[in-house]
């Protein structure tokens, strides 16, 4: 196992729990940790702790009155402004005990990842508890309270003065992070998501390219509903490489929402586990090619916590720590036995999905064509730039 | 959409006086990336308007001797007089209508006889985007209802019961069936499943999100 990679987790991160029926469920962290341990790819001694982000760190991005409102709500206070102004206490983001502490631990995990990479000699770090990309400066949105990635990026900018490429493969647009750095030419955001015409949060159009000095440093690839593996991967591979070559980051931060899978109950994409084999592979490769290996990965969405998330997230760690030979065996029987009773669905016995997971998509050709055009439109400024350089 | 013109008009307006030469007016529009230039007097009363396109169309070829003569003319000689204007309290849809009817893409706004602002097609498009809530984190919900009174209210009540905030609503006649209306909501909510369940229980026909029949 490579000593270059840090796996970050603390049990406090499991406290980020709205209620039993809520789709955002950090139980997936325990299930994923267990899969990696049963595989022999992770041991309790090698897990590095997260930490709790300080108020000052939260204020790198968030407004003070918003943080005060989260603390107030966690202590049981209730004001009508919490819901309307701050988005707390809605059906998406209900109040729960210790919500401030739990959210601050998720942020602290991503900040710890930054420090392991910049100060402690690790090349890569993984905090699966992070990736809460919908959090706004002054408002909770889409299950997200504090935006760990935005805070970590601002922390990197202030403390290490490095240029950051943020790549978001969650099925939902990475709006919170995009808007936080929309004017900043030293932070480039690249988001792959289901088109806002079909899915929350409705933004992430190709034409959202940044503003002011930040113009040209925001990229969006919105996919048609029912997009499948092949079309998704063509766009991912092309855009990842082109944007990385163009921006030349010092570090890559990837958000790894695992909800672009056909099984995901909240989205309408038709990916299979194939794309989750490819996502970390290319991120890893590009980090070594352009950033001296510096790569931080966080989690994100992912609402089929049994059939999709544990495999998708384990694949990130196996890639990052160079333990992919583990994939030669099937999913360990001890893991299946451990969880099958609790799971309401049949757990997957293999690392790849069986063929014919879903029936034919009638509009397949049309969808592929539309996605192809979207990709060209999104990358047009880069292609124009290349033409200019050549001539 | 009863948004007033004054809510969306631009108030920092680039203007010219009547004696400005055409060449300067063209440069001014180029510098500020604008296509229309109102011509005003000292009291800021509107005398006329020029557009970069009109000027370019009117200009003789650059190889023609008359070209130099033309670009040195004062704008008052080439401007359009009797300018069609909007008033600050006009509804946005009224001014949109004025623009399409007169085939113009810009309206100066006058208040008490003087120039107070300007609106262009671009401003109208921005307003449309804002009114449909497309710039806020929202999900799209599309429902087909019978063309009868009270439908919007009933659906809104179900949304309210879920404590979900509605960002915008669009109501229109179904294109395919004139006994039906289509309601399009943008709601501030990422997980619509509990709401969809309630709507289905109340027998509403949900057009989006569709459940792929093949979803397990």
Automatic annotation (TrEMBL), chain A:
Highest taxon above the source species: Bacteria
SUPFAM superfamilies tied to this protein: Arginase/deacetylase (SSF52768)
Molecular function per GO: histone deacetylase activity
Domain (Histone deacetylase) ranges: 22-317
Keyword set includes NADP: no
Keyword S-adenosyl-L-methionine: no
Cited InterPro entries: AcuC, HDACs, His_deacetylse_dom, His_deacetylse_dom_sf, Ureohydrolase_dom_sf
Keywords: Acetoin catabolism
UniProt GO BP: acetoin catabolic process; epigenetic regulation of gene expression
Pfam families on file: Hist_deacetyl (PF00850)
Gene3D superfamilies reported in the protein's UniProt record: Histone deacetylase domain
Coiled-coil blocks: none
Pathway(s) served: Ketone degradation; acetoin degradation
Membrane-spanning intervals of the chain: none
Family: Belongs to the histone deacetylase family.
Protein name: Acetoin utilization protein AcuC
UniProtKB/TrEMBL annotation, chain B:
Keywords: CBS domain
InterPro entries with a match to the protein in the record: ACT-like_dom_sf (IPR045865), ACT_dom (IPR002912), CBS_dom (IPR000644), CBS_dom_sf (IPR046342), Diverse_CBS-Domain (IPR051257)
CDD domains: CBS_pair_AcuB_like (cd04584)
Every CBS domain range: 9-69, 79-136
UniProt domain ACT: residue ranges: 140-214
The keyword 4Fe-4S belongs to this UniProt entry's keyword annotation: no
Pfam family, one: ACT
Protein name per UniProt: Acetoin utilization protein AcuB
């Amino acid at each position: 196992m490579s000593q270059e990679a840090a796996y970050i987790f603390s049990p406090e991160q499991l406290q980020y729990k709205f209620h039993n029926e809520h789709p955002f469920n950090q139980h997936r962290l325990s299930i994923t940790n267990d899969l990696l341990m049963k595989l022999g790819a992770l041991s309790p001694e090698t897990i590095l702790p997260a930490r709790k982000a300080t108020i000052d760190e939260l204020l790198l991005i968030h407004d003070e009155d918003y943080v005060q409102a989260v603390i107030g709500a966690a202590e049981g206070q209730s004001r009508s402004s919490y819901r309307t102004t701050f988005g707390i206490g809605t059906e998406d983001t209900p109040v729960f005990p210790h919500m401030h502490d739990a959210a601050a631990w998720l942020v602290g995990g991503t900040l710890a990842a930054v420090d392991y990479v910049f100060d402690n000699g690790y090349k890569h770090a993984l905090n699966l508890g992070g990736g809460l990309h919908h959090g706004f400066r002054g408002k909770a949105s889409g299950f997200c309270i504090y935006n760990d990635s935005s805070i970590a990026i601002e922390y990197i900018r202030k403390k290490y003065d490095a240029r950051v490429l943020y790549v978001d493969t969650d099925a939902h647009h990475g709006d919170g992070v995009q808007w936080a750095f929309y004017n900043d030419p030293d932070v480039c955001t690249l988001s792959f998501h289901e088109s806002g015409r079909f899915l929350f949060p409705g933004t992430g159009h190709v034409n959202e390219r940044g503003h002011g000095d930040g113009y040209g440093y925001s990229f969006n690839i919105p996919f048609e509903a029912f997009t499948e593996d092949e079309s998704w991967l063509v766009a991912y591979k092309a855009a990842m490489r082109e944007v990385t070559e163009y921006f030349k980051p010092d570090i890559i931060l990837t958000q790894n929402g695992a909800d672009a899978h056909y099984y995901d109950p909240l989205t309408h994409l038709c990916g299979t586990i194939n794309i989750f084999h490819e996502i970390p592979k290319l991120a890893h490769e590009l980090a070594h090619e352009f950033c001296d290996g510096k790569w931080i990965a966080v989690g994100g969405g992912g609402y089929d916590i049994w059939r999709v998330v544990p495999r998708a997230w384990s694949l990130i760690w196996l890639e990052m720590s160079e333990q992919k030979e583990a994939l030669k065996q099937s999913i360990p029987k001890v893991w299946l036995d451990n969880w099958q009773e609790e799971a309401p669905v049949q757990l997957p016995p293999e690392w790849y999905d069986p063929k014919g997971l879903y029936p034919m998509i009638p509009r397949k050709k049309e969808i592929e064509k539309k996605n192809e055009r979207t990709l060209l439109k999104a990358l047009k400024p880069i292609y124009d730039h290349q033409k200019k350089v050549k001539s | 959409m009863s948004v007033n013109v004054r809510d969306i008009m631009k108030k920092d307006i680039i203007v010219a006086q009547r004696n400005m030469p055409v060449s300067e007016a063209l440069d001014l529009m180029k510098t500020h990336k604008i296509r229309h230039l109102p011509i005003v007097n000292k009291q800021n009363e509107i005398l006329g308007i020029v557009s970069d396109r009109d000027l370019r169309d009117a200009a003789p070829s650059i190889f023609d001797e008359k070209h130099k003569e033309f670009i040195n003319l004062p704008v008052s000689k080439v401007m359009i007089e009797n300018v069609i204007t909007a008033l600050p309290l006009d509804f946005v849809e009224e001014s949109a209508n004025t623009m399409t009817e007169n085939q113009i893409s810009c309206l100066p706004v006058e208040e008490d006889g003087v120039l107070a602002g300007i609106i262009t097609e671009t401003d109208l498009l921005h307003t449309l985007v804002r009114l449909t809530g497309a710039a806020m984190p929202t999900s799209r919900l599309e429902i087909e209802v019978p063309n009868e009174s009270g439908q919007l209210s009933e659906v809104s009540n179900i949304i309210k019961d879920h404590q979900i905030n509605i960002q915008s609503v669009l109501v229109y006649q179904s294109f395919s069936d004139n006994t039906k209306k289509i309601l399009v909501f943008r709601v501030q909510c990422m997980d619509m499943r509990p709401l969809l369940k309630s709507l289905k229980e109340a027998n509403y026909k949900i057009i989006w999100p569709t459940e792929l029949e093949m979803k397990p």
